[in-house]
Structures are given as C-alpha cells and as structure tokens.
Amino acid sequence: MLIALTRGVSPTLGNCELQELDREPIDIGRAVKQHRCYEQCLEELGARLMALPAEPQFPDGVFVEDPALVLDEIAIMTRPGAESRRGEGESIAKALAPYRPLQWIQAPGTLEGGDVMRIGKTLYVGLSRRTNSDGIEQLRCIVEPLGYQVIAVPVRGCLHLKSACCCIDDGAVLVNPDWIDVALLDCVHFYVSAKEPRAANILRIGDTLIYPDAFPRTREKLEELHYSVRTVDASELAKAEGGVTCTSILFDA
C-alpha cells in the first residue's frame, strides 16, 4: 500500500523561510484549497492519505518532505538547515514510527529531504545552503550498510537539489542544467524549457507525473516524450519556494 503523508497549510505560511525568491503576499485560503486538490490527486492516483494537522508555530510545516527521508528499510529524521524548521520533525517521527525504524541526523550536520533524489539504490544529495557536507556524510554512514550509494551534488541558484532535478522514471531526470553539474547524474537528462527555469520539480507516482500547471512549455516536452502528466495549481505554495515533491512523503507500508 502506498501512503502519502501530508500536513495542512499553516496559517502563518506568509512568514516562511525564503532563500531565492522575494517575499510576496500568500493567500492562505487559496493555498489551503490548492493543497487539498493536491491531496485529492494523490488519492486518485492510489495513495492512502495520512494527513497531519497544520501546526501554526511552523510556517513551513506543509513542506513535510524536508524533515524526513523514508527509504524501504528505515526513516531518517533530518536536521533542517533552517533553524526555524527543526521542530517540524517531532510529529512526523511519531507518524512514521509504526512503519519504519528511525534514525536521526545530528549536529553539526544539516540535511533536508528536498536535497535527496533517489534513483534505485542511489541517493543523489544536494550540497546546498540547507544541507551540509557533515549531514551528507552522516547519511552515507547510515545508508551504505543497507546497500545505498550516496553521491553529493553541489547546488547553485536554487533552494534544493529537487528544485534543480527530479526523477521522471527509473533512468531519467528532468533537470535545469544551470543549477547543477548534470555530469554527476548517471541517467538520461531531459531539460526544462529555457523560459521556465523553475520547472524541474515534478512528482512521480507509478506511471503518472504530478506537475505544476505554471510550466506549459516543459509539460509539452514531457508529453511529447509520452509521459503521462497530471497538472495541479500550486501557485500559492510556490511563493514559499514549495514544489509538488515537498508537500508529501510517499512510501510503501
């Protein structure tokens, strides 16, 4: 059974951490509606929703991917690079504990789930302003005994690795080559439209790709390659540097 763990939109989302974007007003009511439509999409694609309530003390709490990394064998509770986010993992850890043994990234390491792209038994991990080399090394020590390979990928110009590239099938990624060195990725590369630099974030469920409707040029490229693409409106969460991957944790029960 595929589970999709989500969390409600915080009423304080307008106070979110920002790195690459200028702050814009966020319509919380609209963000809530968009997030619910996203959850419905997950359910329609076969996931069983595990929806946690919003936590007003954590403006970025809807972005559940960052505080935890769930693999087949274990769940790793990360240590976010943004200090304001370090309490978000407590409720997520409680939700994951019935399904996976938990391990934790410790100080001075930092790691955010948005910096981890998994392809098979390879974890590409963004070396970013949110994930440091110590966090990557701790992750390597945890997962290598389980048969995983960890490859560090320096990130520039964007928040997370998965802002720059995301897996669209077992051997291909959608990527903005301006933000990472694509030579570090051992897979086929499809590039976003040059007019849509933020178009690389995409969520795969089975044979379907969930994708923001803000990037029609890149979507058209994907459809020409015979990928099944389902669009959602994620415009309000995008103002908080959120994408379609970071608002859920998908794992098999």
State the helical fraction: 10-25%
Determine the number of helices (DSSP H or I, runs of at least 4 residues): 6
Backbone shape = globular
Q: Architecture in CATH? A: 5-stranded Propeller
CATH secondary-structure class: Alpha Beta
List the helices and strands and how they pair.
Blueprint: E1 2-7, H1 28-44, E2 48-52, E3 68-70, E4 75-77, H2 89-96, E5 102-104, E6 116-119, E7 122-127, H3 133-143, E8 149-154, H4 161-164, E9 165-169, E10 172-175, E11 188-191, E12 203-205, E13 208-212, H5 216-224, E14 228-232, H6 235-238, E15 249-252
Parallel strand pairs: 1-2, 4-5, 7-8, 10-11, 13-14
Antiparallel strand pairs: 1-15, 3-4, 6-7, 9-10, 12-13
Question: Could you give a quick summary of the protein structure above?
Answer:
The protein is α/β, with parallel strands linked by helices and 253 residues long.
Describe this structure in words.
The termini are close together. The model has no long low-confidence stretch (mean pLDDT 97). The chain has a 3-stranded mixed beta sheet, with helices on both faces. A 3-stranded mixed beta sheet has the order 3-4-5, with helices on one face. The protein has a 3-stranded mixed beta sheet with strand order 6-7-8, covered by helices on one side. The protein is 21% helix and 26% strand. The chain has one domain: L-arginine/glycine Amidinotransferase, Chain A (5-stranded Propeller). It is built from 6 helices and 15 strands. The protein has helices spanning 28-44, 89-96, 133-143, 161-164, 216-224, 235-238; strands at residues 2-7, 48-52, 68-70, 75-77, 102-104, 116-119, 122-127, 149-154, 165-169, 172-175, 188-191, 203-205, 208-212, 228-232, 249-252. It is α/β, with parallel strands linked by helices and 253 residues long.
